[in-house]
């Protein structure tokens, strides 16, 4: 009996939690209210051990790559978001189940008061969650918390109400004869409401219908409003009617480079919309430029509080072409991109603050709870390390760290906070977010190279010989690339040609025109960094220090 009650409770949990989620989604899309399911997931990702996360993320990335589900970072985000929804719904199921069982055991006839209690109990953690980690909402904290409280209590009341109605109705077996009997016998005036004919089953079907209507309407409206308000920056039609990618700078610094990439090589400059995006939240934090001030304090003679205007007006702007790679990028993966970053040298800012002699590190904190430490010796040795406020000559987008992020050549992305909200000069560093979770302390990028293309459709002819253009990228952070070699099947390694890169720190495009031979072949590539060191051929996974190994592509020509 209680198993049946538990099952009904679980069902009611779904029927009430699903429309709640749709309502929350609608609120998030229309007025920027918090969306609790994502915050719950974010929180879990923060508290889970690094090993569990690494296994989870690794599995997601592998599935995406194996099933060819598309661009890794956005697909992974989508999968995580789905997981967050399923998780939230599951909690609703558990709550509904427990509520029904407990009420049944108590032989309770009423449910609404208990529903208020359920809602209040649930509201405590959910409200705390929104208070402590939500940074995506654009509504004020008070409104966000009130909304969370009201919706959560409302959800509890709804479950309680359904219980009360359900408990008052007679079970379907008894109700059925009452229904068919009704037309034949004049109903006595004293018949209680619950025997008017509606069976428990019918009642639950009605609740189900209402739930479906609210869920579909809420989610549909939310999705509709989301797609109509989000401005697509993907393509821009110029007055002359030509469609352009707005983010591609017109004059790249290597415009005169003699070597042309082999057809099929990835774009040398990654359009901003295609740049991979990796962060610890399901929705990026939302920071208003008006309220944002960056404190630079700790072991300094004159603490600073800089606004975005200060960054623009009071410091010389540095422009650098940068390749950024995630430490979770697999050999040949797509978690790597190249773009133009604009900012201010950290050396200049620290000079203004006056770093004291016992200082050794900067502890950098971010709006999403991310943090990293940067060695002051590293900053003193490299004036390219900068705090950046623009990409592609435009303010950073929300997803890529608005209003400010750091650039550190030679390091993987995990060492480079976005959405910076504080910089403290300290003697002892706090271990970084991912360092604490078992990833490499320094996260210096590994030398890597990738075969993007074997351009069998673009065979070139020279001196009566046919050549197949083979090409791709090589990257070694700030060390640069000195040489790239290609091996076809088990033949000798052959030196490839290198295209002048966008800067000393970006990836380098290589090309090798291979003398045509029919059949199926394997094309492997390896690179030497600027110091002449050959990349590692050991096949190593991404954790903890980034993947290594030789990339190869098989092709039939
Ligand atoms: N505040 C914050 N900064 C962050 C992260 C983050 O989750 N939060 N992720 C880091 C990681 S792991 C990478 S790879 C880069 C990715 O930058 P992108 O999303 O602009 O490509 O941001 C880094 N900076
Ligand atoms: Mo990363």
Rg (C-alpha, Å)? 30 Å
What binds here, in terms of ligands, is: the ligand Nc1nc2c(c(=O)[nH]1)N[C@H]1C(S)=C(S)[C@@H](COP(=O)(O)O)O[C@H]1N2, molybdenum atom
Protein structure class: alpha+beta
**Arithmetic mean pLDDT:** 90
Strand order of the largest sheet: 4-3-12-7-8
Query: Largest sheet, described in full?
Result: 5 strands, mixed
Percent of residues in helices comes to 25-40%
Question: Which residue ranges are poorly predicted, with pLDDT under 50 across at least 5 consecutive positions?
Answer: 172-194, 229-247
Tell me what the structure shows:
This protein is α+β, with helices and mostly antiparallel strands and 557 residues long. 37% of the residues lie in helices and 21% in strands. It has a 5-stranded mixed beta sheet. A hairpin with a 2-residue loop joins strand 9 and strand 10. Molybdenum atom (MO) binds next to loops. The site of ligand MTE has 18 residues, from loops.
